[in-house]
Write a structure and sequence with these properties.
Number of strands: 4
Structural class: alpha+beta
Helix content: 25-40%
Distance between the termini: 41 Å
Strand order of the largest sheet: 2-1-4-3
Strand content: over 45%
Length: 70
């Protein structure tokens, strides 16, 4: 019984760190008015996916792109 509990514990821990699919939604605004948006699917750990999605944030003059995990 102890061995079973240990195996289940390790399995749960392993599954918690598996890669998952996340949607990164980028919204483009100009002078505060939304002019478009795009979505893409990124696979990985939440911390890595969030960093990759946020790397797409940009701003040039009044045009800005803001990306967030959905």
């Amino acid at each position: 019984m102890k061995k079973l509990m240990i195996v289940l514990g390790v399995a749960l821990f392993t599954m918690a760190s598996c890669s998952k699919d996340y949607t990164c939604k980028c919204t483009v605004t100009e002078a505060g008015v939304e002019i478009g948006s795009t979505s893409s699917t990124i696979t990985g750990k939440k911390k890595d996916v969030t960093a990759a999605c946020d790397a797409n944030d940009a701003s040039v003059g009044t045009l800005s792109t803001n990306c967030e995990i959905q």
